[in-house]
Write a structure and sequence with these properties.
It is a single chain. The chain is α/β, with parallel strands linked by helices. 39% of the residues lie in helices and 15% in strands. The longest helix is centred in the last third of the chain and has 23 residues. It starts with 13 loop residues before the first helix and ends in a 9-residue tail after the last helix. The mean pLDDT is 95. The structure holds pyridoxal-5'-phosphate. The site of pyridoxal-5'-phosphate has 12 residues, from helix 5.
Length: 406
Amino acid sequence: MERYHWAREDYLSARVKSASLQLRHHLDVRAGQIAAGGSRVYDFSDETNMGAEQEPVKQAVIDMVKKGLPVGELRGLSSFRQVIAEKEKEEKGLDLDPDKNIMVTSGGSMQSMYFAMQATIDPGDEVIFGYPGLTVDEIAKLAGGKPVYVPIRHETGYRYDLEALERAITPKTKMIYFNSPNNPTGRVFPRDEVQQIADIAIDHDLLVLSDEVHETNVWDGRKHVSIATLPGMQDRTIVCNSITKCYHMFRWRVGWMLANEHLIDQVDKLMMWSAQFPPPLMQAGAEALLRGIRGELKDWYRETQADLQLRRDTLWGWLSSMPGFVPFKPEGTFLSFSDTSSLDRSSVKLAEYLLEEAHVLVAPGISYLGEGHLRISFDRPRDEINEGMERAKAALEEYPGPARGA
Ligand SMILES: Cc1ncc(COP(=O)(O)O)c(C=O)c1O
């Protein structure tokens, strides 16, 4: 029998060939090598996992192991879906039936976005993405869809260019991906701007995929407005979320999708034929955290979030005096985004330089369709922010410019 060779291009699907990995991957690998060589790397590309360190989370997992794992439920454990519904009602006023409107995932919000697009996008359908932004346009490509890009510009304080958005809409447009609080810019879109996006979605009869993973990471008294809560929007919005960013449990990979019951019925097939059901053990920990922050972990959560804002302030102090940086003050998320194009248009070169010279790992803007920028996370302990930024500043004062390595 003839065997296919895996390297044969014609054996690969057009979908998989059309998509790529995140561009910053090689930097993460190099940071690992530097750390393995015994040097400390100051990592400002990632998040902490403080949620998973809480006792009720650990206890819930231990209890489930001792009792034995329950039968897996296709849409996730009903007790976990119940707490998600309560949380959404309490925080946003959304009415959700835990049995009809919620699908838990075992791959964070990334998997819920994957499911959302697999369930709604046909080959040739267009999906609109703001840029800079998270490169989930790759998920649209994997569904056979065509990403269409609309600018949100630093010069306008990262507002959507609404005229460009209107112009981008064609008869093939099916969905707008909307992310607030926003990665990488740190912008929290205020109610009037969220309403403008909702109006466009309604006028053109579009779906909205609302990525709300940073929903409670909002600073200076701001409030996150879920586009699903605006009049006429809940039915056409798919909310994707996880315990990664606001609940500080990135590595647990638990996420969920909120949508109308007809869509969730269809997503059942995607869950069944990809994972069968999300693992109960991880949900036990996630549920303990979400319940806990409404009870015994309330004070811990309030203090953690308040401290995150103080870390923002610490980083902001450094960014404001960093040579060549034009930073945007984060309104939400734990991410800062700075225009560094006066130092080097190539964000990868600048990030590589910081890693090699200062052992400081940051994310190049190009990974977020924002060339000429660097993204720096402040979800790090304050002493690490201070030490790392001091090293970055010293290195940048010596930066020889774009000619280096050219
Ligand atoms: C805005 C945003 N959405 C979604 C994700 C995916 O995260 P997860 O799959 O852990 O929920 C990320 C991760 O970087 C993100 O920044």
